[in-house]
Specification:
The complex is a heterodimer of chains A (373) and B (234).
Chain A: H1 2-38, H2 46-70, H3 78-94, H4 107-119, H5 125-147, H6 152-229, H7 237-255, H8 263-277, E1 281-283, H9 298-311, E2 316-324, E3 327-334, E4 346-347, E5 353-359, E6 362-370
Parallel strand pairs in A: 1-2
Antiparallel strand pairs in A: 2-3, 3-6, 4-5, 5-6
Chain B: E1 11-16, H1 20-29, E2 36-42, H2 45-48, E3 55-58, E4 61-62, E5 65-66, H3 71-76, E6 80-85, H4 90-98, E7 103-106, H5 112-123, H6 131-138, H7 150-161, H8 165-172, H9 176-193, H10 198-209, H11 219-224
Parallel strand pairs in B: 1-2, 1-3, 3-6, 6-7
Antiparallel strand pairs in B: 4-5
Helix pairs in contact in B: 4-6, 6-7, 7-9, 8-9, 9-10
The chains are: A alpha+beta (373), B alpha/beta (234).
Domain Response regulatory (chain B): 12-122
Keywords (chain B): DNA-binding, Phosphoprotein, Sigma factor, Transcription, Transcription regulation
Protein name (chain B): LuxR family transcriptional regulator
């Protein structure tokens, strides 16, 4: 769902950018080229006008390429913007002074679209496009002043073209920006909702799991209390051991704080639960919340030997996990009499090293993974 | 309270613990002829304040409130504090040690013998490292962590994860005495690298007197007398 929404937002960004390219391209081919060719004789220097058209086309190509690749304008636009303004000046110079406001002086009405393409999607696009359009308007006004075309009719024509161009160009940019912003907001919202859902789901799962374990402990406690009420001897080592085991399990539940347990921790908890169901007294200090991400296969290699030691524990086991940003060490000490042990450390292909030791009726199995530091 | 070294054979202890069953258990551990005497107990820090005791045994979770932040205030007057809690997470152990606590005993694995041993060592201002402390010191990656040697770090980790110091010695191929030395040196280094506290100064002085470290190995300690408190941490 989130992915679909993100795809829609990406499409918005892409197609609105391509829209700007299409408008500028159609305008440049349909209008600029047509008036340059059909009004060839009306230019003072038609080759200059044609050269300006070619330069415009080159800048257009650069902009179009960037927009199609990244859906935003080029990283560096100052030189391109100045070259575009030079096109404006060139077409003005190529035109006869009396044609300044005529149809063949296509530059000043057209370069705004290149400005739109260049500034598209850039962080400061508003300032940049306004500066660019103002420069265009200023150049044209200066040209009119030089040509002495500041009469009422000329000024009116000037204002109509400027206002029309600016309205279309800025309007398109602002409209598309609004669409894009809304689409991005929707994506963020969708991501947040998806994250909330995942968190809620895992929290519910953990909560249900804890309730199940509380219930199991309650049953054990209830049976212990019934035994005591029925006259079981609190001094009896078996009764005392059962009480200790119940207290341990409760303590572990109380100190579990993480909302989403690590996969390694989950496996260990599951095996500890299984051992306790077999009446094995398990001690396990809190496993911590910041286990590093493990490469493929490391978790399995870290767990295999210690879990085997835990699964074969006769009456008691101690499970510990130590972790740093590039190290995880899992250990089990248990009265496991049957576990085959290796006298030398075993080096797994994943880099995990497993050590075994038997001492005083207990086996100590320790697997360590050291990541690249 | 508890400013001086042991005056006699009996170490006095005050206990802050809100569960009567734990109080009773601890009291039974201290029954004669142990050289430890419980002289005060109460469910809040205030209830034992003002009692002279060599060591204050402090539960971290009192009536549902964690009192980690009050450890520094307790240690500031030179009181030796041993935290006694099931919250053995390395982050919490490091916080209380940084605040000046002399030791941390995990309720999950504590036995009468280990508890008494820790209390006696702390009362004598000697370095003591319980398994939760070993894990917390070995896995410290904070900016002010002490520079532990590979062997010191390995000894701490194995001590936390194995069954005994004898098994650590067998694993490392060294004598048990050397394992103790590695672990104790790591503890002293940790005290020197942390925030200053009078209890840590006492520990460092004792470590030097006992020949565990040379004065020039404890750079923070040697600067304590000359520098302002803000400059003490390295």
């Amino acid at each position: 769902m989130t992915e679909e929404i993100e795809q829609v937002a990406r499409r918005y960004a892409r197609y609105t950018a391509l829209g700007a390219v299409v408008i500028a391209g159609v305008w440049h081919l349909g209008y600029d080229l047509t008036v340059t060719l059909t009004g060839w004789s009306s230019f003072r220097w038609p080759w200059v006008a044609l050269a300006a058209w070619v330069l415009y086309s080159a800048i257009f190509a650069v902009g179009a390429l960037t927009l199609s690749r990244t859906s935003r304008g080029p990283g560096r636009i100052l030189e391109l913007a100045l070259a575009t303004l030079a096109v404006d000046v060139a077409v003005i110079v190529a035109s006869r002074p009396e044609e300044l406001l005529g149809i063949s002086d296509w530059g000043w009405g057209s370069i705004g679209w290149i400005g739109v393409m260049l500034t598209w999607g850039r962080p400061r696009w508003r300032t940049e496009i306004i500066a660019f359009l103002s420069a265009n308007a200023g150049i044209m006004l200066a040209a009119m002043a030089v040509a002495g075309a500041l009469d009422r009719v000329s000024i009116a024509k000037y204002l109509v073209v400027i206002a029309g161009g600016v309205t279309m160009q800025l309007g398109y940019m602002a409209g598309c920006h609004l669409l894009r912003t809304r689409a991005e907001e929707t994506v963020l919202l969708a991501r947040k909702l998806a994250a909330d859902d995942a968190w809620r789901e895992s929290a519910q799962r953990i909560h249900a799991d804890r309730l199940r374990r509380y219930e199991a402990i309650r049953d054990v406690a209830e049976s212990l209390l019934t035994q005591l009420a029925d006259g079981a001897d609190p001094g009896d080592p078996r009764v005392r051991e059962d009480c200790t085991a119940g207290a341990m399990r409760l303590r572990r539940l109380i100190t579990e704080r993480e909302d989403v347990p690590d996969e390694l921790v989950s496996v260990l908890r599951e095996r500890i639960d299984a051992a306790e169901r077999r009446q094995v007294l398990v001690t396990a200090p809190p496993f911590g919340e910041h286990l590093p991400a493990l490469p493929d296969g490391v978790r399995e290699d870290l767990l295999r030997a210690p879990v085997r030691a835990l699964d074969g524990a006769r009456t008691r086991a101690r499970v510990t996990v130590s972790a740093m940003s590039t190290m995880v060490s899992v250990a089990v000490v248990a009265d496991n009499d049957d576990l085959p042990i290796s006298p030398t450390p075993v080096h797994e292909a994943s880099g995990v090293v497993v050590s075994y030791q038997r001492l005083g009726g207990e086996v100590w199995v320790n697997s360590i993974w050291q990541g690249p530091s | 309270m508890g400013q001086q070294h042991l005056a006699g054979p009996v170490v006095t202890v005050a206990l802050v613990e809100d569960h009567q069953v734990v109080v009773d258990g601890v009291r039974s551990w201290f029954a004669p002829p142990t050289p430890v005497e419980l002289v005060a107990q109460g469910p809040t820090i205030e209830s034992v304040r003002g009692t002279a005791a060599d060591v204050l045994l402090l539960d971290l979770n009192l009536n549902g409130t964690m009192v980690v932040d009050r450890v520094a205030e307790l240690c500031a007057g030179g009181q030796r504090v041993i935290v006694f809690s099931e919250h053995e997470e390395p982050e919490i152990v490091r916080r209380v040690l940084d605040a000046g606590a002399s030791a941390f005993i995990g309720k999950g694995r504590a036995t009468r013998e280990s508890c008494l041993e820790t209390i006696l060592e702390v009362a004598a201002d000697r370095p003591t490292v319980t398994p939760p402390m070993a894990q917390a010191i070995a896995t410290d990656e904070g900016p002010h962590r002490p520079q532990l040697s590979d062997k010191e770090r390995a000894a701490l980790l194995y001590w936390f994860q194995s069954m005994s110091k004898a098994s650590v010695a067998a694993r490392m191929g060294i004598k048990e005495r050397t394992v103790r030395q590695y672990i104790d040196r790591a503890r002293v280094k940790y005290a020197a690298a942390g925030r200053p506290a009078p209890t840590k100064e006492k520990l460092l002085i004792c470590a030097i007197q006992d020949g565990l470290v040379r004065p020039d190995e404890v750079t923070v300690y040697t600067s304590l007398a000359a520098q302002a408190p803000a400059d003490r941490r390295e």
